[in-house]
Amino acid sequence: MTLRRVNVVTGGLVAVLGALFLVGGLYGAHGYVANFLTYRGFDPPREPAWVAHPGTAQKVDVTSPALGGRGQEVYVYLPSGYTSHPTKRYPVVYLLHGFPGRPLAWLETLRMGVIDDSLGARGRAQPTILVMPFGSTGTFTDKEWVDGAAPGNGWGTFVSRDVVRYVDAHYRTVRARAARAIVGLSEGGYGAIDIALHHPDEFSVVESWSGYERPDKLRSIFGPKLQLLARNDPQTQLPRVAPDLRRLQTYFWFYSGTEDRFRTQNRAFARELATARVPHHFFESFGGHNWALWRKNATRAYMVAATRLHA
Question: Which of 110, 144, 165, 224 is the most exposed place for a label (fewest CB within 10 A)?
């Protein structure tokens, strides 16, 4: 009788401990997955010791007529010194995420806020305001950063008009195209180029990190007969807008990984920019289409934009 009770108690204790172990394992696995999705396997961003007053990130909702009046989330990073220099105005770098993607990857995975602060603190590049709009209705909903065929899907106009106007109205920006850059990675790189070609008066620097120039034939975006595809094909549109780009001296800076399937598109686009006499620089960086490549080139990319923008 006593032995049986001991066995029952022991068995129950083992079951409880097993359940706790399972829950703990699942919790640990969840934490690992969440951490990986946030930082992509890299360490969380840390400000260097020489940055006394790090910048701050804000989340705002921008009411967008281009999106049918919806409020769309946008993140704004105010660089080190923004609060302590209340009369200073700053150039702005607009950052477009890839697909699938979210805007905070620019700060959490690519450390753009840390780069902004650390280069500014050491006088290597001027500080800038970083603006990171969310370019979709969901992480896994593809919008391509273009003005799509469906009503309320003006994602290109959302960036070039609605977000730019909001940022200029609410922050101490230099309100001129000479002080604006548009930058994107992967699909965001395509979006940056496409938006710049449609709105040459808005941005003076255009960067594409592992982007592409031949959009996919997505009827959900470009229409059931792909009627908007040619209008959003940078290689098709470049000859039309090249005279404006030359006059305005718009600068294109872009790269592909040596193992990236989009590198042939970018080589072709670089040749077309050269033929059109549009200022540009294209290079290939060892690697694929991944976060390691983008992190490796992030500081260089920031310096290109910051040194070309006028304060």
Answer: 224
pLDDT digit string, tens, across residues 86-142? 999 999 999 999 999 999 999 999 999 999 999 999 999 999 999 999 999 999 999
CB-based contacts of 69, cutoff 8 Å, min separation 6: 63, 152
Q: Under DSSP, is residue 109 helix (H, G, I), strand (E, B) or coil?
A: coil
For the full predicted model, state whether its pTM sits above 0.70: yes
- Categorise residue 55: left if φ over 0, alpha if ψ from -120 to 50, beta otherwise: beta
Q: How far is CA 93 from CA 45, 179, 192, 194, 268, in A?
A: 19, 8, 11, 16, 26
Contact 183, 209 (CB under 8 A): yes
Q: Which residue is it, tokens 């872009």?
A: 254
pLDDT digits (tens, 9 = 90+) for 232-268: 999 999 999 999 999 999 999 999 999 999 999 999 9
Cα(199)–Cα(229) distance, integer angstroms? 17
- Phi then psi for residue 143, to 5 deg, are -125, -15
